[in-house]
Amino acid sequence: MSRKVMSRRRFLGVSGMFVAASTADACWFFRRRRRCRCHPARKYVRQNIASLQPAQLQSLKKGVEVMKSRDDDDPTSWRFQANIHGTFDPPQPLFNQCEHGTIQFLTWHRAYLYFFERILRKASGDPSLTLPYWNWNIQRSLPLAFREPAVPGNPLFDDTRSINDGSELPENVVVDDLELALEEIEFRSGFTGFSPQFEGSPHGAVHVLVGGNMRSVPTAANDPIFWLHHGNIDRVWDQWLNLNAGRMNPSDPGFLNQEYSFADENGATVTVKVNDIISSAGLGYCYDDVPNPPMFVSGTEAAGKSRVVASSVKGLSELTPPEDAEPISLGFEKHSATVPVLKDGAAALRESLSEPQRAAKVLLDIQGITIQEVPNFTFGVYVNLPKDEMNAKNRRLHYAGSINFFGRGHKKGHPHRRDHVTTFTQTFNVTRVINHLRKSTDWNDGEFSVTLVPVAPIAPKGQEDARKRLSVQSAEKAKISYQRIALRIVR
Ligand code: C2O
């Protein structure tokens, strides 16, 4: 393997050359249909899987098939590419590189997809091939070509998934969680902001709900749907930047100068800086329905000071629970906890929420969440959820978000183990929810409740019992528990 270190100019020059050499002009095609909103120089338009022409789908299948037929130690093979993300296979320098729970989640996966797309394009023999995306926000069940025909001969099929039966992803994940993430203005500030929120859900929740290989980091990229899921993740990042109103990528040199290595379409190791791959425009592609955001970058990560104002472990004002705090187990059923407000907590809350410029954020932590393996469902988390049935709109007023079980406890560059017990804290930005609830008549300054509602894919008619059994079994194996729920103010 030859090793090339690309300078920014050279790198962009190379990708520019590829653009010029492309024969099919996908952008022209879309312009004719008045749908191309990306820069005219971008010839690589990533399309919604639902709008692919039969010949394009054929190219995609061909590319995947060719990559799968290559030897595992060939950097352009399917297995090697998946291993770059994560693997149980014996470690190699390029393996186990994915960024999760860090500020580089979006950038690393953008570069990963970019080089994968080049490999796939070359393997398919179709110079116009681009990686499609799966817009689960609208198309809630797995794209048909990925589940039918359900035979090993279909290169897009993976029989480990739990939604091959056409089950749909639930609305709170693919609609509500997406909206919550897009609303965030900061890129990242500690555990809140667009990147961590979006990484948790829909990103992580979709991984878990697709199930099988997709459920965990060391196997996820073996499933062909991984690449289309991440196409959509990458697309939403551009969508978020386009919403503007102060939304920006981080700009500190430490972030931009971070280097990553991948394999290119010839199997050579390529090392790039984040600065070179941070912009879709710079990489020469765009999405069919999202214009390229401008190439500017700015803003930095900021983390504030925390003060705990409520705790399910009564009277505990420390930021973290004691190590020996009693674990509370969670099964595939609804769970409610009472969270008493600490002395002075109510006053602090009142004060911070009435600040004119709202400098303070209110965060809800579920601490000491432990799993023996990743379950195939997640939990929606609600504050003061009334017991009686509610309509969807009402319910959303109480909604904090969903727990993310994907990519937890994984350390970049470290080999994976199958018997890994994972412990983590899930944080939600509940500023808006708490602010709203405080104004309602049934708010009690002394305590509130947090309800965890299990969220599984929605089974097709007649399959509901089978689906439920799968979830219950999964809960038994996952042995989910947590130690404490706390509310804190950050400023
Ligand atoms: Cu690195 Cu969606 O995974």
Low-confidence sequence ranges: 1-36
Helical residues, percent: 25-40%
Mean pLDDT: 88
Bound molecules: CU-O-CU linkage
Radius of gyration from CA coordinates: 23 Å
Tally of separate helices: 16
Q: What is the strand arrangement across the widest sheet?
A: 6-15-9-12
What's the shape? Answer: globular
For the record, give the distance between the C-alpha atoms at the N and C termini, rounded to a whole number: 49 Å
Write down how many β-strands occur, each being a DSSP E stretch of 2 or more residues. 15
Report the portion of residues in β strands: 15-25%
Helix-strand makeup class: alpha+beta
Biggest β-sheet, characterized? 4 strands, antiparallel
How would you portray this structure in words?
The strands form five sheets. The protein has a four-stranded antiparallel sheet with strand order 6-15-9-12, with helices on one face. The chain contains 16 helices and 15 strands. The chain is α+β, with helices and mostly antiparallel strands and 491 residues long. The chain starts with a strand and ends with a strand. The protein binds CU-O-CU linkage (C2O).
